[in-house]
Amino acid sequence: MSGVLQTEFAGVTFKNPVVLASGTCGFGREYNEIFDIERLGGISTKGLTLNPRQGNEGVRIWETDCGVMNSVGLENPGVRKFIEDELGWLNGLDVVNIVNLSGHSIEDYIEGAELLNGVKLDIVELNISCPNVRAGGMNFGVKTEVAREVVRKVRAACKHKLMVKLSPNAEDVTALARACEEEGADGISLVNTFLAMAIDIKKRSPVFENVYAGLSGPAIKPIALRMVHQAAKAVQIPVMGIGGIVSWQDAVEFIMAGAAAVQIGTGNFIDPAISLSVIDGMQGYLDSQKIGSIEEIKGCV
């Protein structure tokens, strides 16, 4: 008998634990031209802000050893345009629909959540790695008590399942995870990108106009795995693991570390259909090891 990849996350059933990560798959349309995205467990949309954003100027993507740095700047059509143009298509798919919500003020987060209350979706993924423009640009997700306030207020406004996406740049990721649980989050996802830097030695200046950018890809996987393990041990709510997953072995490690599901991001740029090989590889692993369900190995480490 084949092992079962189906998993539960905050009461939502995923046919398998593989999700396309926010910011790497748009809203899924382009990937659906390459492979049948209904084979996926879920899709996390491009990060949405209340109003449309053009994103950052200058260099946006920079390859580095075993990874990628990005400074896209949350370019997106805004929540209202997403609801009008993309949501119906996503809801027509047999995948879990995760809508990633970003913001640069608590009021933006709340208004965005309230707009999403009126539509069908499965999970809101709250991105608290955004710079708080009213606090000098420090990300909401760095200090635990600041993050706690955002989660508490968005939880009060949001009628959907709420998953909070944690920054690895937080002062204490386990304290942050516990704060999210205490304020009513249904789950957490981690990690977002690591703060990093690149220098153009010919120009003798930073590559990115904002100086620092987000590092993702295989280079961050061991650190992300450690943080997922720590967070999963600290909370009772489910965890979605993110960070450098490019193989089924990587995904299995995250499940063993305590994740109920995983997101694949940078790997999509290496191979747009990489998620299928991860799904197939996980299935083969369960079958070869005579494991009846992916749930049997969740958090076994």
Outline the structure in words.
With 301 residues, the protein is of the alpha/beta class. Helix content is 31%, strand content 20%. The chain contains ten helices and 16 strands. The strands form four sheets. Strands 3-4-7-8-9-10-15-16 form an eight-stranded parallel beta barrel, surrounded by five helices. The longest helix is centred in the C-terminal third of the chain and has 15 residues, at 274-288. It starts with 6 loop residues before the first strand and ends in a 13-residue tail after the last helix. The relative contact order is 0.17. The mean pLDDT is 95.
Mean pLDDT: 95
The largest sheet has its strands arranged as: 3-4-7-8-9-10-15-16
Task: Tell me the number of strands.
Answer: 16
- The helicity comes to 25-40%
| Tally of helical segments | 10
Order of helices and strands: EEEHEEEHHEHEHEHEEEEEHEHEHH
Structural class: alpha/beta
> How much of the polypeptide forms β-strand, as a percent range?
15-25%
Euclidean distance between termini CA atoms: 25 Å
Radius of gyration: 18 Å
Based on Cα principal axes, name the global outline.
globular
Largest sheet: 8 strands, parallel, barrel
Which runs of at least 5 residues are low in confidence (pLDDT < 50)?
none
